[in-house]
Amino acid sequence: MKEFFIMFCLLLLGSSALWGQSNEVIDQFLEIEQADVGTTMLLLGQSLGELPDSADTAAAENWAEAQSWYKYIKSIDGEDFFPLGRYFAVLYNCYGIESRSMMFSLFKTPRYAAMDAYDQEYFFGSLFHTRPVTSQEVLYSITKAMEVSGE
Questions:
Q1: Phi, psi of 40 (to 5 degrees)
Q2: Residue 90's closest CA among 41, 135, 46, 127?
Q3: Model-level pTM?
Q4: How confident is the model at residue 24 (pLDDT cuts 50, 70, 90)?
Protein backbone atom coordinates (compact mmCIF):
# COMPACT_ATOMS: atom_id res chain seq x y z
CA MET A 1 0.00 0.00 0.00
CA LYS A 2 2.85 2.34 0.88
CA GLU A 3 4.55 1.64 -2.47
CA PHE A 4 1.32 2.39 -4.31
CA PHE A 5 0.98 5.70 -2.46
CA ILE A 6 4.59 6.67 -3.27
CA MET A 7 4.10 5.83 -6.96
CA PHE A 8 0.85 7.78 -7.01
CA CYS A 9 2.57 10.83 -5.47
CA LEU A 10 5.43 10.64 -7.98
CA LEU A 11 2.98 10.38 -10.84
CA LEU A 12 1.00 13.31 -9.51
CA LEU A 13 4.10 15.48 -9.06
CA GLY A 14 5.42 14.54 -12.49
CA SER A 15 2.19 15.42 -14.22
CA SER A 16 1.86 18.74 -12.40
CA ALA A 17 4.63 20.11 -14.63
CA LEU A 18 2.42 19.39 -17.63
CA TRP A 19 -0.48 21.32 -16.13
CA GLY A 20 1.75 24.38 -15.76
CA GLN A 21 2.53 24.53 -19.47
CA SER A 22 1.03 27.39 -21.43
CA ASN A 23 0.92 28.69 -24.96
CA GLU A 24 4.15 30.56 -25.72
CA VAL A 25 2.49 32.78 -28.33
CA ILE A 26 -0.16 33.93 -25.86
CA ASP A 27 2.45 34.52 -23.15
CA GLN A 28 4.50 36.75 -25.47
CA PHE A 29 1.33 38.46 -26.68
CA LEU A 30 0.26 39.32 -23.14
CA GLU A 31 3.66 40.88 -22.40
CA ILE A 32 3.03 43.68 -24.89
CA GLU A 33 0.63 46.53 -24.17
CA GLN A 34 -0.70 47.11 -27.70
CA ALA A 35 -1.86 44.21 -29.83
CA ASP A 36 -0.09 43.95 -33.18
CA VAL A 37 -1.96 42.97 -36.32
CA GLY A 38 0.11 39.88 -37.16
CA THR A 39 -0.23 38.12 -33.82
CA THR A 40 -3.88 39.11 -33.52
CA MET A 41 -4.61 37.58 -36.94
CA LEU A 42 -2.73 34.46 -35.86
CA LEU A 43 -4.86 34.10 -32.73
CA LEU A 44 -8.07 34.77 -34.67
CA GLY A 45 -7.21 32.20 -37.33
CA GLN A 46 -6.30 29.60 -34.73
CA SER A 47 -9.44 30.26 -32.71
CA LEU A 48 -11.54 29.71 -35.82
CA GLY A 49 -9.65 26.49 -36.59
CA GLU A 50 -8.46 27.81 -39.94
CA LEU A 51 -4.77 27.98 -38.96
CA PRO A 52 -2.78 25.17 -37.32
CA ASP A 53 -1.10 25.65 -33.95
CA SER A 54 2.28 25.61 -35.69
CA ALA A 55 1.43 28.60 -37.92
CA ASP A 56 3.32 31.87 -37.69
CA THR A 57 2.33 35.49 -38.28
CA ALA A 58 3.31 35.34 -41.97
CA ALA A 59 0.86 32.47 -42.51
CA ALA A 60 -1.78 34.43 -40.59
CA GLU A 61 -1.29 37.47 -42.81
CA ASN A 62 -1.58 35.30 -45.93
CA TRP A 63 -4.79 33.80 -44.54
CA ALA A 64 -6.16 37.27 -43.77
CA GLU A 65 -5.47 38.50 -47.31
CA ALA A 66 -7.86 35.88 -48.67
CA GLN A 67 -10.75 36.98 -46.43
CA SER A 68 -13.55 39.39 -47.36
CA TRP A 69 -12.87 41.56 -44.29
CA TYR A 70 -9.24 42.17 -45.28
CA LYS A 71 -10.26 45.66 -46.42
CA TYR A 72 -10.27 46.73 -42.76
CA ILE A 73 -6.59 45.92 -42.25
CA LYS A 74 -4.90 46.09 -45.65
CA SER A 75 -3.44 49.55 -44.93
CA ILE A 76 -1.89 48.41 -41.60
CA ASP A 77 1.52 46.75 -41.41
CA GLY A 78 1.64 43.44 -39.49
CA GLU A 79 3.99 44.92 -36.86
CA ASP A 80 1.79 47.97 -36.21
CA PHE A 81 -0.81 48.20 -33.47
CA PHE A 82 -4.39 47.19 -34.20
CA PRO A 83 -6.91 50.08 -33.92
CA LEU A 84 -9.90 49.20 -31.73
CA GLY A 85 -12.62 49.84 -34.31
CA ARG A 86 -10.90 47.91 -37.10
CA TYR A 87 -10.25 44.98 -34.78
CA PHE A 88 -13.92 44.67 -33.84
CA ALA A 89 -15.02 45.05 -37.47
CA VAL A 90 -12.75 42.08 -38.27
CA LEU A 91 -13.92 40.09 -35.23
CA TYR A 92 -17.58 40.64 -36.11
CA ASN A 93 -16.97 39.45 -39.67
CA CYS A 94 -14.89 36.44 -38.61
CA TYR A 95 -17.42 35.10 -36.15
CA GLY A 96 -20.56 36.40 -37.86
CA ILE A 97 -21.58 38.28 -34.72
CA GLU A 98 -25.00 39.88 -35.01
CA SER A 99 -24.98 43.61 -34.50
CA ARG A 100 -27.37 45.17 -32.02
CA SER A 101 -26.97 48.65 -33.43
CA MET A 102 -28.72 49.90 -36.52
CA MET A 103 -25.76 52.09 -37.48
CA PHE A 104 -23.25 49.23 -37.70
CA SER A 105 -25.81 47.11 -39.54
CA LEU A 106 -26.11 49.86 -42.14
CA PHE A 107 -22.62 51.32 -42.44
CA LYS A 108 -20.12 48.64 -41.25
CA THR A 109 -17.47 51.19 -40.28
CA PRO A 110 -14.85 50.71 -37.54
CA ARG A 111 -16.38 53.50 -35.46
CA TYR A 112 -19.77 51.76 -35.30
CA ALA A 113 -18.11 48.36 -34.80
CA ALA A 114 -16.38 49.72 -31.68
CA MET A 115 -19.62 51.24 -30.40
CA ASP A 116 -21.53 48.01 -30.93
CA ALA A 117 -18.79 45.91 -29.33
CA TYR A 118 -18.83 48.21 -26.31
CA ASP A 119 -22.62 47.87 -26.06
CA GLN A 120 -22.32 44.07 -26.22
CA GLU A 121 -19.55 44.18 -23.58
CA TYR A 122 -16.76 42.76 -25.74
CA PHE A 123 -14.44 45.27 -24.09
CA PHE A 124 -14.46 47.75 -21.24
CA GLY A 125 -12.70 51.08 -21.27
CA SER A 126 -12.21 53.91 -23.72
CA LEU A 127 -14.54 53.94 -26.70
CA PHE A 128 -12.11 55.92 -28.89
CA HIS A 129 -12.16 53.77 -32.02
CA THR A 130 -8.65 54.64 -33.26
CA ARG A 131 -6.86 53.80 -30.02
CA PRO A 132 -4.76 50.63 -29.94
CA VAL A 133 -6.56 47.52 -28.77
CA THR A 134 -4.75 45.83 -25.88
CA SER A 135 -3.70 42.20 -25.83
CA GLN A 136 -6.03 41.52 -22.90
CA GLU A 137 -8.98 42.97 -24.84
CA VAL A 138 -8.14 40.76 -27.82
CA LEU A 139 -8.07 37.57 -25.76
CA TYR A 140 -11.21 38.49 -23.82
CA SER A 141 -13.16 39.36 -26.97
CA ILE A 142 -12.07 36.20 -28.82
CA THR A 143 -13.13 34.11 -25.82
CA LYS A 144 -16.49 35.86 -25.66
CA ALA A 145 -17.00 35.53 -29.43
CA MET A 146 -16.29 31.80 -29.21
CA GLU A 147 -18.83 31.44 -26.41
CA VAL A 148 -21.49 33.44 -28.25
CA SER A 149 -20.99 31.61 -31.55
CA GLY A 150 -20.77 28.21 -29.85
CA GLU A 151 -17.35 27.27 -31.25
A1: -65, -40
A2: 41
A3: 0.82
A4: confident
